[in-house]
């Protein structure tokens, strides 16, 4: 594997969409990610906030760090099945932390499912009882599981302050 984590290019949007779409929340309670359409992916990528794990041209995984009202959120974090448990998720998390720290954030947060909680905890994230209002207004409201009982857990990673970088 020749893995590089790099900013997503405009032209990656369709492949990213395919990967995310195979893992979105469904009415039957399955799924792990908020649906995101290709247009939104392109626009986030054009702002430099979507990144991909690229294995010599193959899309191994992706994630984005959104920044709204001073809050950094890791979103759309997924690794293609054939690449799992080989450190790709860890590489994406590290890149996301770096991006959030460079943007001046103190905390990077994510909403995670039970199965992925261990991955976050082994990368320094801690469970927290907190869900930003902006997240509810922007994403949760369009999730098929919003009214049927969300089981996601908030986790936070405390980023090093400027002085420690
Ligand atoms: C969660 C996901 C992105 C992890 O990707 P991955 O490439 O398999 O993760 P890694 O191989 O980098 O593993 C990272 C760490 O988590 C650990 N880990 C991996 N799978 C784990 C699991 N199911 N439970 C607990 N720990 C796990 C690894 O041992 C590793 O620990 P280390 O860094 O101390 O060695 C991947 O399973 C996935 O795409 N799942 C479906 C989508 C999803 O749930 N996304 C998260 C939404 S919040």
Q: In words, what does this structure look like?
A:
- The structure is a single chain.
- With 165 residues, this protein is α+β, with helices and mostly antiparallel strands.
- Helix content is 28%, strand content 28%.
- The chain has 5 helices and 7 strands, in the order E-H-H-E-E-E-H-E-H-E-H-E.
- Strand 3 (58-68) and strand 4 form a beta hairpin.
- Helix 1 (13-21) crosses helix 2.
- The longest helix is centred in the middle third of the chain and has 15 residues, at 88-102.
- The protein starts with a strand and ends in a 7-residue tail after the last strand.
- The chain binds coenzyme A (COA).
- Coenzyme A binds at residues 23, 32-33, 77-79, 84-90, 110, 112-113, 115-116, 118-119, 122-123.
Secondary structure: elements and pairs:
Layout: E1 3-7, H1 13-21, H2 38-46, E2 50-55, E3 58-68, E4 71-79, H3 88-102, E5 107-112, H4 114-121, E6 126-128, H5 133-138, E7 153-158
Parallel strand pairs: 4-5
Antiparallel strand pairs: 1-2, 2-3, 3-4, 5-7, 6-7
Helix pairs in contact: 1-2
The structure holds coenzyme A.
Keywords summarizing the entry:
165 residues; 7-stranded mixed β-sheet; binds coenzyme A
- Secondary structure: number of strands: 7
Order of helices and strands: EHHEEEHEHEHE
CATH architecture: 3-Layer(aba) Sandwich
Shape: globular
Largest sheet: 7 strands, mixed
Structural class: alpha+beta
Task: Report the total helices.
Answer: 5
Ligand inventory reads: coenzyme A
Determine the strand fraction and express it as a percent band.
25-35%
Relative helix content:
25-40%
């Amino acid at each position: 594997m020749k893995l590089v984590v790099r900013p997503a290019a405009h032209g990656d949007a369709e492949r990213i969409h395919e990967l995310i779409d195979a893992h979105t929340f469904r009415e039957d309670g399955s799924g792990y990610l908020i649906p995101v359409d290709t247009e939104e992916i392109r626009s986030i990528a054009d702002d430099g906030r979507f990144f991909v794990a690229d294995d010599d041209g193959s899309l191994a995984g992706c994630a984005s760090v959104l920044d709204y009202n001073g809050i950094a959120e890791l979103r759309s974090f997924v690794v293609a099945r054939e690449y799992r448990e080989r450190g790709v998720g860890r590489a994406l998390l590290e890149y996301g932390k770096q991006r959030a720290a460079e943007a001046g954030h103190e905390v990077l947060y994510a909403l995670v499912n039970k199965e992925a909680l261990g991955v976050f905890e082994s990368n320094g994230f801690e469970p927290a009882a907190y869900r930003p209002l902006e997240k509810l207004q922007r994403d949760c409201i369009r999730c098929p599981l919003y009214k049927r009982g969300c089981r996601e857990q908030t986790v936070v990673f405390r980023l090093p302050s400027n002085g420690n970088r």
